Amino acid sequence: MNREKYVFFLDVDGVITDEFARVDTLLLSDLERLQKDGHRFIFVTGRSLNWMENNVFPHLNSPNGFTYVCEYGKVISHAGEISVEGRIPQNVEDRVKKNVGSLFGVFFDQTKKTLVTIEADHAVAKMHPDKVEASLQKAERMLDAVAEGLNMDVIRSTFAVDMVKKGTNKEEAGRKALAYVIPSRKIIVVGDSPRDLDMTKPLRASGIPHEFYFVGKKLGFEPTQPNQFKTEAGYSEGLREVLTAKGLYEDKARRKNKLA
Questions:
Q1: 83: phi > 0 → left, psi -120 to 50 → alpha, else beta; which?
Q2: pLDDT at 125 over 70
Q3: Contact at 8 Å (CB) between 123 and 136?
Q4: Domain ranges, ordered by start, for the chain
Q5: How far apart are CA 220 and CA 11, in angstroms?
Q6: Are 216 and 199 in contact (CB under 8 A)?
Q7: Cα angle: 176, vertex 178, 180; to 5 degrees
């Protein structure tokens, strides 16, 4: 086993989940075991803390042992302490909700506190990928129109469209995550979208040693730097591949994917 201790910045969707967005519960157990061994895992995601509490916490023995940088850094939970930075005005939420019902295979995410999200129904997207993608593109245009004049940006990810306050993105989330990093540790960033590479910008600016691993299968990415890598497997199996490459899995063949 590798004796070096790492800090991991992990995206959530497509990194600790399978292609149907199901959380890989055995993988979570492995992360908890590795954290007890001295590694640190920080979830850096556009997901809400409420989603994490409902879908990740139940599968961890000590969920407060992890750090959760949610909603692109606007909602953070560390050691059980929660901070929320800014909220979306109710009239903006209502304006978006009114138009979502006409779109096929997507829904308004009620759990977000600081941003507006229209998300794909993953089961429907698997059966009707083209129709759901068309709905997400319509949602993106709709949010672009709403965001105009509100000092807000629209961020498109694999299965969702977010409307956020300007300056809210994965780069800012990575900067917020840095507050919880153990000094002198190499940081391993794992994502499934080219936008996740933005988490490395504050690391480069600070001169912090790091590597980026792309585990995505929906969106294209080709490494352009020596510290950027693309896994053969995707989704949670891609993260397993990363952990194996870093010498953190003793018996990969024995471990089988157990999904919630």
A1: beta
A2: yes
A3: no
A4: 6-84+169-254, 90-165
A5: 16
A6: no
A7: 95
Whether residue 169 is predicted with pLDDT greater than 60 in this model: the reply is yes
Domain 6-84+169-254 fold: Rossmann fold (3.40.50)
Q: Are 160 and 100 in contact (CB under 8 A)?
A: no
Lookup: tokens for 8: 């991991």
Residue corresponding to tokens 């909602």: 75
Element (H, E) at 127: helix 122-127
Return the HEC string of 76-122.
Answer: EEECCEEEECCCCCHHHHHHHHHHHCCCCCEEECCCCCCCEEEEECH
DSSP state of 158: S
Task: Output the six-digit token pair for 232.
Answer: 């053969």
pTM as predicted: 0.91
What CA–CA distance (Å, rounded) separates 101 from 108? 8
Q: What token pair was written down for 67?
A: 């750090």
Identity of the amino acid at 236 = S
Distance of CA 42 to the CA centre of its chain: 10
In one-letter notation, the amino acid at residue 195 is R
- List the CATH code of the domain at 90-165: 3.30.70
pLDDT in tens, 61-104: 999 999 999 999 999 999 999 999 988 889 999 999 998 989 99
3-state secondary structure string across 31-53: HHHHHHCCCEEEEECCCCHHHHH
